[in-house]
């Protein structure tokens, strides 16, 4: 049907809702399927272009109106035109039709368009399997427990719709179909569990990197204000479990990208100007006992492991090559696109870097020409102060820390936009900022004073109380601090944030944005309720991560060892999987053979009736309708066969009539058996 005729004709008006119980079966089943599709598409909305969401909603609503009003479906040329427009908009949105985002967008559009072609059962099956494919695409974005639960509901709904499509007669209830779908899914659960436990792990299944900057907030570049934006994100960045005593919050520094190149507006990793022999090396020197811990790291989209400072040995991570750089970063061979769990050890007391000056340290003195002239003048004035002209790096750093504590500086998430000479504005005018403002200003001033310095980014602190024995580090714990070089010691950590906001470092008290309406209402009713709800959910989510998402090849081999295999390998795993699947298949076949007569109670009743009719000489085949058999009984036995013929007509009304029954009537079966015995006795005299 053309769109113009649809809008100009009587079909443009919204049909009146007749009530759920008054809907014909086709309309009811269609509305149910549309609801399942809407539920499946809904979690994709944050990742879809606005036009795709609007177009999908419009098509689903249009199809629902046609189902309620029993209107004709649109013509194929109109659907082709909409598909072409959608493909064009997809190309305009992503500049390609290939890749994750455009692929998911087109899959959603195709799903919605296909609902406008539901003319036959074949079309419905295409929609079902498109729906199952769309369920899988959600895990390209997230494998969280919430997404898994939502998709479990979607799978159940799609299976229910599939069951309804295989019930061609009568009007089975949604409840009946949902029970059958749930029972079928439960029967398949052992196979699913077996495949999960034994199917070979061949790397990250859903590790599709995102385009652009890391979704976690850590980046290999930093502008003033960037870390403050990350502090608004309360998602989990990593989880820790310590083998021994838990260190205090002020010791929890997780080292990420080190930034030393500054162009006046942005900090980036340093590209050295000196040969390797003249560059400062790591030269790590540890003191005291090692601290052992287990870390579960969320996907970073960066090739950096933000390990506890300072971790001393490369963690063993299956599928990755791990190395330590000269600036004490732990790097891997590719961006982290999957959740990782590993063990590591760290020394909280340490020194690193060269003790004696090297030519390569001059790279850490570089400042861009023409930027922040007032800061450079201030540095020159400080050097002229009594006692500072010949002061070392440690004395100068202490002088700047005291200036921050006593100079009226403010630690805030919303310092506003800074101009071209941002360091000048921070030190001498506005005196407010977040951790990256303090760290960057400290490093620039130390360089202006002739002290090599650099910025370190990562995380600092953790939630004060463990959840399920794990301490949680959030994206809002993202932090930036400084390092300066001290002769005789090497690189020394300096955290200017500790001078202006000591509670942020010593007690992990983060700055927080104002709560939303729901969170604010709950907090007003019970200040502890929101925290308790979050901790409970995160405990459940942590177990999901540990038991399901982090199930690895090593754990598979550990399982084989628990089963008595001394030296497990891939061949043993494959043999065990094939043996277990074959055993389950044989059990299923045996059960199907035993249960073949219990598949459909109507079929059992019909087979019993046909066998009884054959015993009294009536030709009765499986394709014969009960009405046809009634006529044969009357033709052969006349008035004597009338009771039996009447029972056959009652069966036809119960099975195919307007008031069709959902299940066969056992009393009818008994009456039919009695009638056939009576007729046989009458004809034998």
Keywords:
disordered N terminus, four-stranded antiparallel beta sheet, single chain, 685 residues, 19 strands, alpha+beta, five-stranded antiparallel beta sheet
Description of the molecule:
By secondary structure, the chain is an alpha+beta fold. 48% of the residues lie in helices and 12% in strands. The strands form six sheets. A five-stranded antiparallel beta sheet has the order 9-3-16-18-19, with helices on one face. Strand 18 (478-486) and strand 19 form a beta hairpin. Helix 2 runs antiparallel to helix 3 and helix 2 packs antiparallel against helix 7 (145-165). The protein is elongated and about 130 Å long. The protein starts with a helix and ends with a helix. The model is unreliable at 1-12 and 204-216 (pLDDT under 50).
Strand content: 5-15%
**Uncertain stretches of 5 or more adjacent residues:** 1-12, 204-216
Question: How many beta-strand elements?
Answer: 19
Number of H/I helices: 23
Q: Which strand order spans the largest sheet, edge to edge or round the barrel?
A: 9-3-16-18-19
**Chain-averaged pLDDT:** 82
Instruction: Give the C-alpha Rg.
Output: 36 Å
First and last CA, distance: 67 Å
């Amino acid at each position: 049907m053309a769109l113009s005729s649809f809008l100009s004709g009587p079909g443009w008006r919204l049909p009146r809702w007749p009530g759920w119980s008054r809907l014909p079966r086709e309309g009811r089943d269609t509305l149910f399927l549309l609801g399942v599709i809407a539920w499946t598409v809904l979690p994709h909305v944050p990742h879809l272009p606005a036009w795709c969401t609007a177009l999908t909603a419009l098509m689903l609503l249009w199809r629902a109106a046609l189902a309620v009003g029993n209107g004709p479906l649109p013509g194929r040329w109109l659907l082709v035109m909409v598909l072409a427009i959608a493909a064009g908009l997809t190309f305009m949105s992503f500049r390609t039709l290939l890749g994750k985002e455009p692929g998911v967008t087109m899959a959603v559009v195709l799903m919605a368009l296909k609902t406008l072609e539901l003319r036959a059962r074949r079309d419905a099956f295409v929609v079902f399997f498109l729906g199952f494919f769309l369920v899988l695409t959600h895990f390209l974005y997230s494998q969280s427990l919430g997404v898994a639960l939502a998709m479990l509901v979607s799978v159940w709904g799609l299976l229910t719709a599939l069951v309804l499509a295989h019930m061609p007669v009568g009007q089975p209830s949604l409840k009946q179909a949902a029970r059958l779908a749930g029972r079928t899914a439960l029967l398949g659960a052992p196979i699913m569990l077996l495949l999960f436990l034994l199917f070979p792990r061949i790397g990250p299944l859903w590790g599709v990197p995102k385009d652009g900057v890391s979704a976690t907030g850590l980046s290999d570049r930093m502008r003033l204000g960037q870390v403050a934006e990350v502090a608004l994100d309360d998602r989990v960045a990593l989880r820790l479990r310590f083998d021994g005593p838990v260190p205090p919050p002020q010791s929890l520094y997780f080292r990420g990208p080190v930034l030393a190149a500054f162009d006046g507006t942005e900090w980036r990793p340093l590209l050295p100007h000196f040969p390797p022999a003249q560059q400062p090396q790591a030269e790590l020197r540890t003191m005291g006992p090692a601290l052992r811990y287990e870390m579960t790291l969320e996907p970073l989209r960066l090739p950096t492991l933000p390990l506890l400072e300072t971790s001393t040995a490369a963690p063993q991570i299956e599928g990755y090559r791990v190395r330590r750089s000269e600036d004490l970063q732990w790097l891997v061979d590719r961006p982290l696109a999957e959740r990782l769990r590993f063990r590591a050890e760290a020394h909280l007391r340490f020194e690193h870097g060269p003790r004696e000056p090297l030519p390569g340290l001059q790279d850490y003195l570089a400042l861009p020409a023409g930027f922040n002239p007032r800061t450079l003048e201030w540095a020159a004035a400080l050097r002229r102060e009594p006692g500072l002209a010949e002061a070392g790096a440690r004395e100068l750093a202490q002088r700047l820390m005291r200036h921050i504590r006593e100079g009226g500086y403010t630690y805030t998430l919303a310092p506003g936009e800074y101009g071209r000479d941002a360091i000048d504005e921070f030190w001498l005018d506005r005196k407010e900022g977040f951790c990256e403002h303090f760290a960057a200003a400290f490093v620039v001033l130390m360089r202006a004073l002739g002290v090599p310095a650099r910025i370190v980014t990562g995380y600092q602190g953790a939630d004060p109380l463990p959840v399920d024995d794990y301490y949680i580090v959030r994206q809002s714990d993202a932090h930036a601090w400084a390092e300066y070089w001290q002769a005789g010691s090497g690189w020394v950590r300096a955290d200017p944030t500790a001078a202006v906001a000591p509670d942020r470092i010593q007690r992990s008290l983060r700055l927080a944005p104002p709560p939303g309406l729901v969170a604010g209402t709950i907090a007003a009713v019970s200040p502890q309720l929101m925290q308790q709800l979050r901790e409970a959910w995160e405990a459940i989510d942590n177990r999901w991560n540990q038991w399901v998402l982090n199930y690895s090849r090593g754990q598979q081999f550990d399982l084989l060892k628990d089963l008595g295999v001394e030296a497990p390998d891939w061949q043993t795993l494959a043999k065990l999987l094939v043996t277990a699947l074959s055993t389950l298949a044989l059990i299923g076949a045996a059960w199907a053979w035993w249960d073949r007569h219990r598949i459909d109670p109507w079929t059992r009743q019909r087979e019993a009736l046909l066998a009884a009719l054959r015993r009294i000489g009536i030709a009765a085949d499986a394709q014969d309708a009960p009405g046809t058999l009634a006529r044969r009984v009357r033709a052969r036995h006349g008035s004597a066969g009338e009771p039996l013929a009447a029972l056959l007509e009652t069966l036809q009304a119960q099975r195919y009539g307007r008031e069709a029954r959902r299940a066969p009537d056992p009393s009818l079966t008994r009456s039919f058996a009695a009638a056939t015995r009576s007729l046989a006795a009458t004809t034998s005299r």
